[in-house]
Amino acid sequence: MDDLKRILNDVFGDSSSSDSDDVSQSTLGWEKTSQINGLWLCRHFLSPRQQSCLLTQIQKEGWFNESSCNQAMRFGDLPGWATELSSSIYEAILLSNLTDSAASGGDEGICLFPETLLFREPLFDQLIVNKYEAGEGIRFHVDLMRFEDGIAIISLDSSCIMHFSQVRMGEENQEKSPPMNVPLYLTPGSLVLMWGDARYLWEHGIDRRPGVQMWEGQEIDQKRRISITLRRLCQNSTP
Ligand SMILES: O=C(O)CCC(=O)C(=O)O
Ligand SMILES: [Fe+2]
């Protein structure tokens, strides 16, 4: 129990400290997307204070000083704040596996992140920070094969809908039925974990053109959005 408390304090701070808006164990819930294996969302992974700390760190990097620059990439040694973020993700998964019986048990269908991925070292060695202005998104894609399985995405600043669409294997299938499309509502401070089917058999994309970002009949207010994607390069790949 003491170990759990220590991990909780390491990840989210001491609940008796003044940072009372930080997310605590009781609010850290994981949602599984029922249609897609290997896709998990933790809606309240970062508190507002943690989000603004991260945004300050990103601003300090100076990557987006030029308005024409909307993406920064790092390989190998990541900035300290990204390494800390990676540790928080690791510890949050480990903790949830320990405390939430629904997420444990080693069955890949219901586990948050397979242990073979969780216990690799380092967990992540590649970072992409994307900056999207209102109306900007990212086309449907499967992340490049030079990255291993097991990807984490943090959303900051503005909400969006990420859509997942089944990868089409052959033309024959394409004529039969439209691909299944699954929307995922990403709020600031949320964490997405993507592995297995979600990483290889589904494309993901974000279309933020006016009129497209609809959720429960309402259009989402589009502002600047920052995302942090953490991945690991395949061992035989060069950056
Ligand atoms: O911005 C996002 O939330 C996703 C980014 C992404 O899919 C990528 O960089 O491959
Ligand atoms: Fe991606």
Topology:
Layout: H1 2-12, E1 31-32, E2 39-42, H2 48-61, E3 71-75, H3 80-99, H4 115-118, E4 126-132, E5 138-141, E6 151-156, E7 160-166, H5 171-176, E8 181-186, E9 191-194, H6 197-200, E10 202-206, E11 214-215, E12 218-219, E13 225-231
Antiparallel strand pairs: 1-2, 2-9, 3-4, 4-13, 5-10, 6-9, 6-13, 7-8, 7-10, 11-12
This protein binds 2-oxoglutaric acid and fe (ii) ion (FE2).
Protein name: Fe2OG dioxygenase domain-containing protein
Family: Belongs to the alkB family.
Pfam families: 2OG-FeII_Oxy_2
Number of continuous helical runs: 6
What is the CATH C level class, in words? Mainly Beta
The distinct bound ligands, ions and cofactors come out as: 2-oxoglutaric acid, fe (ii) ion
**Largest sheet: spatial strand order:** 1-2-9-6-13-4-3
The biggest beta sheet reads: 7 strands, antiparallel
CATH topology label? Jelly Rolls
Tell me the span between the first and last alpha carbons.
42 Å
- The share of residues in extended strands comes to 25-35%
Strands, count: 13
**Low-confidence blocks of residues:** 14-20, 102-109
Average residue pLDDT: 86
Structural class: alpha+beta
The value of Rg in angstroms is: 18 Å
CATH architecture: Sandwich
Tell me the series of helices and strands, N- to C-terminal: HEEHEHHEEEEHEEHEEEE
Helix coverage percent = 10-25%
* Tally of individual domains: 1
CATH superfamily: Alpha-ketoglutarate-dependent dioxygenase AlkB-like
> What overall geometry do the principal axes of the alpha carbons give?
globular
Pfam family, one: 2OG-FeII_Oxy_2
Family: Belongs to the alkB family.
Domain Fe2OG dioxygenase: 123-234
Protein name: Fe2OG dioxygenase domain-containing protein
